Amino acid sequence: MSFWWLNPLMKMGYEKPLEDKDMPLLGATDRAQNQYLMFMEKLNREKQSPSHATPSFFWTIVSCHKRAILVSGFCALLKVLTLSTGPVLLKAFINVSLGKGSFKYEGFVLAVVMFVCKFCESLSQRQWYFRTRRLGLQVRSFLSAAIYKKQQKLSNAAKMKHSSGEIMNYVTVDAYRIGEFPYWFHQTWTTSVQLCIALAILYNAVGAAMLSSLVVIIITVLCNAPLAKLQHKYQSKLMEAQDVRLKAMTESLVHMKVLKLYAWEAHFKKVIEGLREVEYKWLTAFQLRRAYNSFLFWSSPVLVSAATFLTCYLLKIPLDASNVFTFVATLRLVQDPIRQIPDVIGVVIQAKVAFTRISKFLDAPELNGQARKKYYVGIDYPLAMNSCSFSWDVNPSKPTLKNINLAVKAGEKVAICGEVGSGKSTLLAAVLGEVPKTEGTIQVCGKIAYISQNAWIQTGTVQDNILFGSSMDRERYHNTLARCSLVKDLEMLPYGDCTQIGERGVNLSGGQKQRVQLARALYQNADIYLLDDPFSAVDAHTATSLFNEYVMSALSDKTVLLVTHQVDFLPVFDSILVNVRWRGYSVCTLSRSIGRL
């Protein structure tokens, strides 16, 4: 309650600069993984319920954290009640000073009561803020995790609808605003409670003149209703404009080399500035309504006091010291909730828009891929397709791949050949579950490692890209470097495998990036390796070395599907798949495949 658990850390920080190891570990309930699992478990349970075919994400979050919401709500209510005792105690103090006390030591009792009330007010307010901020961080963390997880399972149509820039906005903007909402959630009802208590105290102080205060407050709230609708509309338009601008900026930065090469900087600058103008238009409209809203509510306390005193004058209501001071003190109770109403309305509108956007994203269609099964020693065919057809389109008139029959034994090496654009990469994507299956059955058993045609490199060191979050095994690591012909390349780098390779591996050549990608896949020790023409980015000598050391030696006991255009490698493969456009794949012998190539 008093945050004494922070004292040891504060003392340590006073004695020496704090380091990462000095920070206490995050509690199990606060970790993003546990929060995400709890959220998904609750969401799936409600989806399976007949009465909740389309469950509300908001109420799912509330059900996950109802205890924390109730505790923080109790602290908020306690804070409002203890705060409201101020004017009542002030009036009692004034009566005691005027000789109207009820008993001898009433002044001392009032002083003790005021101390206890202010102590409870401070304690409850800090607990309210702390618990809601903590809850907001938990909600933000599992929403971010849910968005990242959903991104990996989006269907192709959903990927076209939700760009990477929009998804980044969901995490950085929408999830953040929802994370801020728990702090303001209790303000939505404590404001009304505090206003009702303040009006009751005003009625006790000035009688019927309180009605004029109530009328001014009602008029202020009614004038704000159309503004709130406009704010919601402009906030939605603003978020859409931000998504479009961020998408254009992301694409420009990613392809900056192309822009520089073709001297397109001025054109793209003009396009981005135009998108910024559209965003600025909606931002201006939103902020102008918000400013008018704030002016309306900030001026309302003055109008309330003026209307009340004018009514007292007209109704001949006597004003003595106790009434006036009680009214002034109560007016402060009225000012705070009234001035917070614009902020509360703004936060609620932003959170509603954010909830709508994230809900639509999390409800987006997913890939209908077959669940991958665990690999067990002794499985004869870790990869099998029976009369399978695949299509990138949702309702295909003609499937991309049709009538695929494939059975790959454990440890078998399969080459995939065919003309450009015939669907070789699509077949690998189908094995990964990235292409929707329209017909047939597919079974994939085991852990898959995929090497794409264009190397994917993350910002960091060479070692970070190879380990990719796995623990370091020195022997396996050095063996991986040797198999991928990276030893000499690392010797030329200034800091070896600890060299920073820049954004998307900008400091590496195409062949080096491809070999780093091959090393990453090899280090993960998968069961099935899907290689999409990885040797096209290296010279012939290096390609031969990689094929012998990597495919035939390091992956000798692994199941391998290799897309290649190099006929010299084909004789050593167990099977060869030759693609004929629009006729699917067939398992061929070496003589048949060479004839068709």
From TrEMBL:
| Domain named ABC transmembrane type-1: residues | 70-350
Please report the stretch or stretches of sequence annotated as the ABC transporter domain.
383-597
Q: Where in the cell is it found?
A: Membrane
Q: From which organism does this entry originate?
A: Triticum turgidum subsp. durum (Durum wheat)
Gene3D superfamilies found in the cross-reference section: ABC transporter type 1, transmembrane domain, P-loop containing nucleotide triphosphate hydrolases
Q: Which domain of life is it from?
A: Eukaryota
- Which is an annotated GO molecular function term of this record? ATP binding
Q: Which GO terms describe its cellular component?
A: membrane
What name appears for this protein in its UniProt entry? Uncharacterized protein
Looking up SUPFAM superfamilies in the UniProt record yields:
ABC transporter transmembrane region, P-loop containing nucleoside triphosphate hydrolases
User: Its family?
Assistant: Belongs to the ABC transporter superfamily. ABCC family. Conjugate transporter (TC 3.A.1.208) subfamily.
Spell out where the chain crosses the membrane: 68-93, 105-124, 209-228
Identify one Pfam family in the record.
Answer: ABC_membrane
Q: How does it sit in the membrane?
A: Multi-pass membrane protein
> Where does this protein chiefly localize?
membrane
Which keywords belong to this entry? ATP-binding, Membrane, Nucleotide-binding, Transmembrane, Transmembrane helix, Transport
